[in-house]
Each structure stands twice: as C-alpha cells, then as structure tokens.
Amino acid sequence: MAFELPQLGYAHDALEPHIDAKTMEIHHGKHHNGYTNKLNAAIEGTDLAGKSIEDILTGLDMNNGAVRNNGGGFYNHCLYWEVLNPNDKGRLSGALLEAINKAFGSKEGFEEKFAAAAKTRFGSGWAWLCAHKDGTVEVCSSANQDNPLMPGIGCGGTPILGIDVWEHAYYLNYQNRRPDYVTGFLSLVNWNVVEKKYEALVG
Ligand code: MN3
Predict the structure, then answer these.
(1) Which end is more exposed in the chain, N or C (fewer Cβ atoms within 10 Å of the end residue's Cβ)?
(2) Which residue, 84, 139, 82, 81, is CA-closest to 107?
(3) CA-based angle 170:173:177, to the nearest 5?
(4) Hey, is 141 helix, strand or coil?
(5) What is the 98 CA–ligand 1 centroid distance (Å)?
(6) What's the 89 CA to ligand 1 centre distance in angstroms?
(7) Residue 169's closest CA among 188, 153, 154?
C-alpha cells in the first residue's frame, strides 16, 4: 500500500491573510505531492514497503538519502496541514497546557522559544514542539526534511506541532520576513489537534 497525499480538509485560501492560497496550492499540490511520490518510489520493492511512516523514520538508516529526505518530507507536511486546520481550533488547555507551563512558564514563553527556534534555523528546516512519553514537552529544530523521530535528530521526542521554515512555505507572501510568517503561523495553530496528539502519546 503506497503512501497517499492527504487531503487538506480546508480550502487553499482558508489560512489567508497569514498563508496565501497560491503558496498553499503549490506547497501541498507540488512540494508535498513530490515528496509522497518520491518516497513511494524509494521504498518500492524494499523491506520498508508496507511499514508505517513512523516505523520507517524511527528505524531509518540515515545514509539512505532518498527515504530520509522524502520520508521526512511526507511526514512533516502531513503534520503541518493538520495543525493548521482552521476548523474547530479550540484553545490550549488541559494536560498539554500544564506541560507547556511547566516547561516554558506560560503559553507566551512557549511561543517565544518556538519562534526563536524557527527564526534561527539556518537555511531550510523545521522547528518543533515535541512530547516525550513521560509527558514532558520540548522545543527543537532540525535541518532540511529531518525530524526528531529520526535517530539522533533534534530532541528525540515525537513532534506534535511543526513549522516549515523552507522558503517555499512563505516566500510569495513574506519574501525574506521569516519572523512575520512565524508570528502568522502561531496565530493559526489548531490546539485541538495538537492536544489530541499529545494525549494519544502520553495517555
Ligand atoms: Mn514544505
């Protein structure tokens, strides 16, 4: 069973003015679609075919560039569209809020740390909010399409929120103003989705 490009679940213009429709159309339809197809080509006929993307990434041979780049690209963008879903966004609460307060002092403290990780990631990459099985949360960042599920990358937790800071994610709307894109992204976060991911992991 090959991996499939997920549906967005909302219109390309649903995140405007923070993320424009043209960027969404290209990012989802071209970039994410490309990672998906190349991942499928890279695992076809190997012992990775049929495994979940999480199993592929946690057991990854980091020298396998095709699976590292395209498997990461597939997984990372799936998370990105999910956490940006504008429907039923909720607000940060419950056990996740407690974990965030414990780690960062407050929601604002978290946002500062997350934004700093996103802004200072040199070149292309991602910044993450990750959860560990013991309930603690951590912010980290990684280069290119790597993510903390991969051996030796970032904080080693499971990403529950991720921002793409490749220029293709924001350049049409923001040009070089990555910090403004990060601020816009943070205003779009669907905390219902992030909380469900946290609860599924921590139990
Ligand atoms: Mn991208």
Answers:
(1) N
(2) 139
(3) 65
(4) strand
(5) 30
(6) 22
(7) 188
- State the distance from the centre of ligand 1 to the C-alpha of 48, rounded, in angstroms: 23
CA 105–ligand 1 middle distance (angstroms): 30
For the stretch 31-85, pLDDT in tens is 999 999 999 999 999 999 999 999 999 999 999 999 999 999 999 999 999 999 9
Distance of CA 168 from the midpoint of ligand 1 (Å): 6
- Count CB atoms within 10 A of the CB of residue 33: 16
The answer to whether 173 and 132 have CB atoms below 8 angstroms apart is no
pLDDT < 70: residue spans in the chain: none
Please state the pTM of the whole predicted model: 0.97
Query: Does CATH place domain 19-203 in 3.55.40.20?
Result: yes
Three-state SS for 125? strand
User: What does the alpha-carbon distance between residue 129 and residue 109 come to, in Å, rounded to a whole number?
Assistant: 13
Residue 168: half-sphere exposure toward Cβ, Cα within 13 Å: 16
pLDDT of residue 14: 98
Contacts of 196 (CB under 8 A, 6+ apart): none
Distance 110 CA to ligand 1 centre (A): 23
Ligand 1 centre and the CA of 167: distance in Å? 8
What is residue 203's predicted lDDT score, i.e. its pLDDT? Answer: 78
Six token digits for residue 152: 């030796």
